[in-house]
Structure formats: C-alpha cells, structure tokens
Amino acid sequence: MKPKRYLYVWLLPLLWSVCSLLSYYYFPGTDKFMWLVGSLAGFWWVLFVRSVVEFGAWWIPYVTVLCGAFVMALPGFCLDRYRLNLKVFLAVWWLPFLAVTTQLVMRNGSVAEAVAKHGSFVSFICAGFNLSLIATALLAIAWVYIGSMLHQTPKSRTDLSGKE
Predict the structure, then answer these.
(1) Exposed, middle or buried, 117 (CB in 10 Å: 0-12/13-18/19+)?
(2) Of 25, 64, 77, 101, which sits with the fewest C-beta atoms within 10 Å of its C-beta?
(3) How do residues 133-160 score in pLDDT, each as one tens digit?
(4) d(CA 66, CA 73)
C-alpha cells in the first residue's frame, strides 16, 4: 500500500490564497473588480451575512481568503486521493489560464483599454490564475473520475441497490 500523499490539499489553497491577497492589496483593478472576479471561490460566506457594512472593511479579504482556501482544499483532497501527477496538472493548467486571462482582457476591447481601465495587466493575470486554478482542479477531478469509471471491469460495477 502506497503512503498517503498530501500535495494538492495544501498547494491549491496556498496558491489561491497568495494570489488572492496579492490581487487585493497590489492589483485589485477598478473598484476591486478584478479581485472580486478572481476570488469568487471565497465569496460564499456572503450568503450567510445579511449585509456587508462596507466593502472596504479590513476583514473582508481575510474572510474571503479563508473561505476560498477551504473551497480549494476540497478539490485538492480529491486530487491527492487520485494521486494525480503534478506535471500533468501543470501541463493542463496552462490552457484554462491562457483562455480565461485572454477572455478577461478582451472583454475590455484591447490590452491597452483593459490596462487603462483596471490599472495593471497583473490584475488580469491574478484573476485568470485563480479562476484557471479552480477550473483545472475540477477538470482534473472529472477526467480522473471518468477514466476510473471506464476502466472498471463489469464484475466490479454495482447497481444502485448495492448488489453486484
């Protein structure tokens, strides 16, 4: 039996959290919009709060990062369970990263207009990084799950009642 590996369960939340905080403090975009887009995984806590007193409150980025780290740990746990190779994950990550970042920039017309509106090209990179990290983790989980379903032998499949 192979020893348990804990790579993605800490790596995905760490990368997501660092990029979210970097985006909030240094490259937030206009009215912190690019930070908001890149940190969507952490904004589920807003559903449980009746009203946010002030969007610029000091505790909002920290609560968002903690909630987002929790959300990113879930696919990290699944990827560790499936023992997905890190090189494969990184190779697959580039396509969603380029697609999402390009889409975020081109929604503003051109690169020059996007930078003029949001202040920095790095704000798009941070938002694209976080969104593509989520997308890649979910795609990898779906890929491994579908692959494991296709490689099962007919004898190992069970119906919904649990009988073979």
Answers:
(1) middle
(2) 25
(3) 999 888 888 887 887 788 765 555 444 4
(4) 11
Average pLDDT, the chain: 83
How does pLDDT run across 122-138, given as a tens digit for each residue? 888 999 999 999 998 88
What's the CA gap between 111 and 118, in Å, rounded? 10
- To the nearest 10 degrees (0 to 180), the angle between helices 121-150 and 60-82 is 30
Q: Residue 95: count other Cβ atoms within 10 Å of its Cβ.
A: 13
Q: According to DSSP H, which parts of 3-59 are helical?
A: 8-25, 33-38
- Which tokens in the block code for residue 114? 């996007």
E strands along the chain, which residues?
none
Query: What is the C-alpha separation between 25 and 42, in angstroms, rounded?
Result: 16
